[in-house]
């Protein structure tokens, strides 16, 4: 029995008798891989014969390409000598033509064989004086090349040029003389042979028979078959339900972006509003507003991507003045501050943001109405070299909650609840330090296979930060490394897989995961 | 974060007790110290930059004694005025070079092998962290008994006049030789090279102690058997110089007889260092309760908790306390820092998390919702979503899209030329993805939605773009055009294609077009040039591609 594709091929062959693969591909509209497997199957059904013909091509070698452009050495020599009056000493040829010794000797050999010129030798007497002052007579042989006319373009040169122009030539399309010339060029290593297979498929009487017999069956039900009620007169061909279907791949969202969408859904369900902000940021929002002193090591080029162009952007003066006061002596908060001289110039430097907390503080600077629950997920950048655990860009989730009477225990409560929603029941809190939060906490989540994994930093924004932003109420803030959380939940060991460049990896990812 | 290695036997000796490994790690994790067992003898210690006093066994033991209830309140240390004197030679321009210095002596600090190792690491980590790699401050330790005089002079000296045997060398070198020939000289020379005189610490009898902040002398070095220390800190920030000396002396004093105060003669003024200044913070009980959400906390409990972290507490009234923090606690800037100590003393494990009652409505950005719709249409059209880096290569952007300098951002310190900018377009990402996967099952249909950054009139502008590409044995303009039109139609966008007279060479000349939305150029569509595909990109199959800029289109919805 014939498949739909096999039938298509036989229909085409019925008309053409014999066809090359390219023709079949064109006429049937099948892709080459489908076509080849269908032909293979037709062969086993004895419906077709496959003729494989080896076709020989010639193409230029590297030396051949050079010669095709510059000319053969014999041609260069002959032309030069004729130009100089038809006579030249052999020892001068090298200087005259610029060819190498070896090329000249090859050239002379062919000149002799092709009778493009002749070599005449003379004997000349010459005298040398030995060290003792004795004059000595020697006889020196001097050979000259005589060229009477420039020979017309040879068939060899013609073949060389033609190959160069077309790129390659089928040997069987060449005339006998051309073939002889080609074998000279092959022997001179200016051409090389290449063989390719040409496949031609021919229909056999059995194939034709199959096509006719099969007519009695209906393989594919079509509009016409239904309308003409053909199923009444013909039998519907049964399917081999055990056979595997062809592979099809659905369009899919990226598995990691689906995970991020799920996080957004959880946070929205917990009453959080989403925000975003620029990835190219001024240091002001990434560091200064966050009470990070200007000589803090995290601000150096080992930890932050700085821009060469454009390298600065203007900042708001009102904020700048407040930041200056907070850094230098704590502003109006009663804090001692960092006790150094703050520079606006540094706060204006452009960087790739190192944390999405810049988005949180930008949000607080424009919205102060109680209460606030905000989150943001975005790319952050650090100059890390790429390995299984580090990438120079990754995702961070930041969140803030601002309300009257909000406490540190509330911050812990929100974080615990968020992870519970993600399916992680055990969270561990430990004291930590960030310049912009106090009390500060770092958090670990429990995974049965990996154990405790550090995944977030959090805390209550410091008074010096709130003062700059003009916020009057306690504000809880946290930042979570989303990539790491995703890896734990989805069981991925190498962070690079989250940004996989392999379509088969993406096609293989499941749309559901367990946690 | 600063990391060091300490010896368990030394810590236990200072504590006067032993603790099992697991238990110790757990205890330390509650006082901001992340510890890891290296071997039978050693622990690796990582501390946060606000508690550098925990970088040595003395500091850890002091903190643990409080937490374990072995001691409470202010740590005790004895001080004594010495007959040593430091003269700052203010005529020598030292004020313009490295203006601040503070010195101290430590008596009865017995240096054995373990101690020496920890002490040198403590010095080095403080130099890096507190001292910002010696720029802000640099610390020197010397064997006090090796000094040939009681009078030490700090001055700026012409480099050719500084000659001594530097630490670890066998012969006398000049200042310039030290900068060229020694490791420390090469590493830190840049801190002094810009001056015509270098800082010099020397006795009045001409014995060099060091050339701060570069290198000490061999003759005065601390070694196994040293009993008394002389310490100097020089720097460019007076507060940090003094505070670091407070930190070092009060920490080493845990294991010494007493701290020696040294008279400093600095021009007209005379004073003693170390200053050993406590930090006094007035704090209200209500403030602590509200910040931590512990409304039943009593004054007595707070006092006990703070004493366990070595603060001294004075009761002002029923509601108010004066918290006196020891000199090594440079991290107390504001009452909130005392609040954190209360929380640490309680133990974070004992703080019951509590959800706030804050009622708010959650919502996603319009942008998120809009882009999700666009992604869903693309998925419906059979396209696999991909996620690639936004960091990109300017060479690739130039080659593929003929982007010009000043149209993209340039990163000053890229990790590699492959990532020296942020992409201005997602097309190179899609083309690269298709190239890598060209031999996988066809057809390959992929898209990505994401951020790009263009530079417009010298300013970085974030644009959100969607790019889609198809690669197959046979694919053409019409195939991708159908996808673009379907996407636009479903998003309710009216789009128009316009010819491009000179498209980037990546495209075939008469098979590329601009995508116009409301008279604005919003993208490009076309078939890729076979010559570029094969010869430049090494791709053997046709590709059709489009990119459309969706920035702000969500605002209308």
Task: Give an overview of the whole structure.
The complex is a heterodimer of chains A (515) and B (557). By secondary structure, chain A is α+β, with helices and mostly antiparallel strands. Chain A has three domains: 4-59 and 197-236, Winged helix-like DNA-binding domain superfamily/Winged helix DNA-binding domain (Arc Repressor Mutant, subunit A, Orthogonal Bundle); 66-193, Winged helix-like DNA-binding domain superfamily/Winged helix DNA-binding domain (Arc Repressor Mutant, subunit A, Orthogonal Bundle); 257-508, Bira Bifunctional Protein, Domain 2 (BirA Bifunctional Protein, domain 2, 2-Layer Sandwich), CATH 3.30.930. Chain A contains 20 helices and 19 strands. Chain B has four domains: 3-67, Phenylalanyl-tRNA Synthetase, Chain B, domain 1, CATH 3.30.56; 79-273, Phenylalanyl-tRNA Synthetase, Chain B, domain 3 (3-Layer(bba) Sandwich), CATH 3.50.40.10; 279-350, Phenylalanyl-tRNA Synthetase, Chain B, domain 1 (2-Layer Sandwich); 366-556, BirA Bifunctional Protein, domain 2, CATH 3.30.930. In chain B, the strands form six sheets. In chain B, strands 4, 5, 6, 7, 10, 11, 12, 13, 14 and 15 form a ten-stranded mixed sheet that branches. In chain B, helix 1 crosses helix 3 (57-67), helix 9 (285-292) crosses helix 11 and helix 10 packs across helix 11. The mean pLDDT of chain B is 95.
């Amino acid at each position: 029995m014939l498949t739909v594709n096999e039938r298509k091929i036989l229909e085409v062959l019925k008309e053409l008798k014999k066809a090359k693969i390219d023709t079949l591909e064109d006429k049937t509209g099948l892709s080459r891989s489908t076509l080849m497997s269908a032909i293979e199957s037709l062969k086993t059904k004895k419906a077709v014969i496959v003729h494989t013909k080896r076709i020989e091509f010639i193409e230029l070698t590297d030396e051949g390409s050079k010669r095709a452009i510059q000319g053969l050495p014999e041609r260069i020599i002959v032309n030069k000598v004729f130009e100089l009056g038809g006579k030249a000493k052999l020892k001068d040829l090298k200087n005259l033509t610029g060819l190498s010794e070896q090329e000249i000797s090859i050239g002379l050999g062919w000149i002799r064989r092709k009778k493009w010129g002749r070599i005449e030798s003379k004997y000349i007497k010459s005298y040398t004086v030995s060290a003792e002052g004795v004059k000595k007579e020697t006889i020196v042989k001097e050979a000259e090349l005589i060229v009477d006319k420039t020979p017309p373009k040879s068939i060899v040169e013609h073949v060389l040029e033609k190959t160069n122009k077309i790129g390659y030539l089928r040997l069987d399309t060449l005339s006998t003389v051309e073939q002889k010339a080609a074998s000279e060029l092959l022997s001179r290593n200016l051409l090389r042979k290449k063989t390719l297979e040409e496949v031609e498929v021919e229909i056999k009487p059995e194939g034709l028979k199959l096509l006719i017999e099969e007519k009695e069956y209906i393989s594919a039900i079509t509009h016409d078959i239904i309308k003409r009620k053909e199923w009444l007169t013909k039998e519907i061909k049964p399917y081999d339900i055990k056979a595997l279907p062809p592979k099809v791949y659905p369009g899919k969202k990226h598995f990691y972006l689906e995970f991020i969408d799920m996080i957004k859904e959880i946070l929205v369900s917990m009453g959080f509003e989403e925000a975003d902000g620029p990835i190219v940021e001024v240091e002001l929002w990434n560091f200064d507003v966050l009470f990070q002193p200007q000589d803090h090591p995290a601000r150096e080029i080992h930890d932050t991507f700085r821009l060469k162009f454009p390298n600065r952007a203007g900042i708001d003066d009102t904020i700048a003045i407040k930041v200056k006061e907070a850094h230098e002596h704590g502003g109006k908060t009663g804090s001692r501050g960092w006790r150094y001289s703050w520079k606006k110039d540094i706060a204006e430097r452009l960087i790739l943001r190192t944390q999405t907390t810049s988005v949180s503080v930008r949000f607080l600077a424009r919205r102060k109405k109680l209460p606030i629950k905000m989150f943001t997920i975005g790319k952050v950048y650090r100059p890390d070299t790429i390995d299984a655990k580090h990438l120079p860009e990754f995702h961070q989730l930041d969140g803030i909650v601002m309300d009257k009477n909000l406490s540190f225990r509330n911050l812990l409560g929100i974080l615990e609840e968020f992870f519970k929603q993600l399916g992680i029941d055990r969270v561990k809190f430990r004291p930590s330090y960030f310049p912009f939060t106090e009390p500060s906490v770092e958090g670990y989540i429990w995974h049965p296979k990996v154990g405790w994994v550090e995944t977030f930093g959090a805390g209550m924004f410091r008074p010096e930060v709130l003062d700059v932003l003009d916020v009057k109420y306690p504000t809880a803030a946290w930042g979570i490394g989303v990539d790491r959380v995703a890896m734990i939940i989805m069981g991925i060991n190498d962070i690079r897989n989250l940004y996989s460049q392999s379509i088969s990896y993406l096609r293989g990812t499941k749309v559901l995961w367990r946690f | 974060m600063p990391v060091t290695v300490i010896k368990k036997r030394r810590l236990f000796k200072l504590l006067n007790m032993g603790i099992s490994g697991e238990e110790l790690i757990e205890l330390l994790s509650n006082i901001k110290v992340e510890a890891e067992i290296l071997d039978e003898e050693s622990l690796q210690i990582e501390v946060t930059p606000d508690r550098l006093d925990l970088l040595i066994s003395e500091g850890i033991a002091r903190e643990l004694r409080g937490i374990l209830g072995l001691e409470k309140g202010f740590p005790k240390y004895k001080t004594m005025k010495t007959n040593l004197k430091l003269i700052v030679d203010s005529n020598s321009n030292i004020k313009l070079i490295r203006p601040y210095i503070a010195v101290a002596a430590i008596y009865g600090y017995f240096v054995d092998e373990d101690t020496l190792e920890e002490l040198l690491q403590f010095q080095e980590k403080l130099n890096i962290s507190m001292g910002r790699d010696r720029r802000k401050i640099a610390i020197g330790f010397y064997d006090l008994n090796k000094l040939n005089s009681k009078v030490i002079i700090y001055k700026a000296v012409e480099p050719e006049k500084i000659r001594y045997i530097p630490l670890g060398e066998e012969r006398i070198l000049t200042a310039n030789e030290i900068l060229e020939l020694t490791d420390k000289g090469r590493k830190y020379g840049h801190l002094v090279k810009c001056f015509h005189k270098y800082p010099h610490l020397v006795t009045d009898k001409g014995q060099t102690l060091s050339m701060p902040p570069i290198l000490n002398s061999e003759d005065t070095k601390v070694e196994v058997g040293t009993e008394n220390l002389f310490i100097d800190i020089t720097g460019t920030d007076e507060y940090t110089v003094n505070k670091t000396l407070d930190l070092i002396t009060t920490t080493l004093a845990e294991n010494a007889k007493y701290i020696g105060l040294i008279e400093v003669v600095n021009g007209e003024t005379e004073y003693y260092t170390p200053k050993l200044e406590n930090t006094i913070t007035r704090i209200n009980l209500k403030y602590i309760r509200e910040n931590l959400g512990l409304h039943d906390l009593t004054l007595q409990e707070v006092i006990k908790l703070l004493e366990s972290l070595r603060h001294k507490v004075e009761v002002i009234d029923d509601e108010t306390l004066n918290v006196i923090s020891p000199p090594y606690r440079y991290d107390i800037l504001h009452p909130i820092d005392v609040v954190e100590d209360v929380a640490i003393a309680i133990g974070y494990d004992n703080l019951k998390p509590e959800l706030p009652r804050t009622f708010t409505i959650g919502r996603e950005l319009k942008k998120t919702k809009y882009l999700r719709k666009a992604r869903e249409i693309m998925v419906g059209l059979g396209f696999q979503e991909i996620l690639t880096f936004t960091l990109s290569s300017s060479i690739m952007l130039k080659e593929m899209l003929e982007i010009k300098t000043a149209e993209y951002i340039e990163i000053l310190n890229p990790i590699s030329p492959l990532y020296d900018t942020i992409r201005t377009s997602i097309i190179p990402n899609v083309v690269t993805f298709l190239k890598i996967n060209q031999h996988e099952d066809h057809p390959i249909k992929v898209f990505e939605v994401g951020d790009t950054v263009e530079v417009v009139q010298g300013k970085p502008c974030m644009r959100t773009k969607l790019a889609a590409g198809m690669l197959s044995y046979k694919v053409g303009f019409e195939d991708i055009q159908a996808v673009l039109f379907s996407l636009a139609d479903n998003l309710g966008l009216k789009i128009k294609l316009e010819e491009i007279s000179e498209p980037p060479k990546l495209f075939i000349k008469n098979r590329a077009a601009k995508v116009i939305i409301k008279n604005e150029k919003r993208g490009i569509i076309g078939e890729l040039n076979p010559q570029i595909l094969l010869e430049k990109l090494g791709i053997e199959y046709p590709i059709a591609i489009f990119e459309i800029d969706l920035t702000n289109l969500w605002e209308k919805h």
